[in-house]
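Handout, page 2. Input:
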Amino acid sequence: MSQTRYNQIDSLNLEQLALGELNWINIQPPTEKVREYLADNYPFHPLDLDDVFSRIQRPKMDEYKDYLFFVFNFPRYNKKEQILSQSQVSVFIGDGYLITLHRGELKPLHGLFDACQNNDELRQDVMGNGTGYLLYRILDRLIDYCLPILNKTGSGIEEIEDHIFSPRTRNTVREISRLRRDVISFRRTIWPMRTLLGGLEAKLRRFSKKDLSVYFGDMVDHLEKIWDGLNEYKEIIEGLHATHDSLASARINDVLRVLTILATIGTTLSVVGTFYGMNVALPGDVDTGNPFSWIIIMTFMLLITGAMLYYFYRKDWL
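Output:
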């Protein structure tokens, strides 16, 4: 590493943590100056540097003679906007160094860096077994971070199950749509990570002092549990969506049935009113001088209404 570039570290969004010959460099967020710094001081391929600065890359691994390059995506939940989205972490790993580049949106990552910076015992535990083991600890922390997000989604589904039979369903529709969007985004993030992490341990053996097979096996198991949970939530949300549509259709049919009955009764009464509105002498007409004409007509209408309601009831239309 050139001394000139090393003195410019303070002007970059770069933090460095060392233990013996191992250096963990954490960059958040990466800038064009960082690109120049990495290009001048490390043997990184220009295409890898382009991937670091692209907006969203699919999880991938590029293997070179001197280093490995990874792109990982992890879910992050924005409480303010209530949106689940992806956050990218790019990693360069070689003999004696590990470089993480991200936008600072993943709290577990910079939380682990700060904890290692302030705790010598933790730094020795995390960084004392090579860069391969250090990468495992970072990934394990980020995957564990997915569990609270998954649990939050499960809690939202339970709330919808409790309120789906409520007569006021406008908010329920919005919540179902929001959870459906989050689950789709979550699945889109986790699916390619399963393939990448499944073959990661074999590539990291040369960078670790420990046998990582057990560690990565446990981490992959956690990821599979998250995937299984997402599949279960996907099916539940689809079932809730179908149930809501059925209930909404039933409520609409009930309203239409009542409105149809009222319209039928009103039409019949209109016929009676129109009949007595003709300019001819009719039995019980007010013009004939009978003071009970209005009562007679209203009674007749009520009898018709009652008879029709009774008929609808017997037909099980009410």
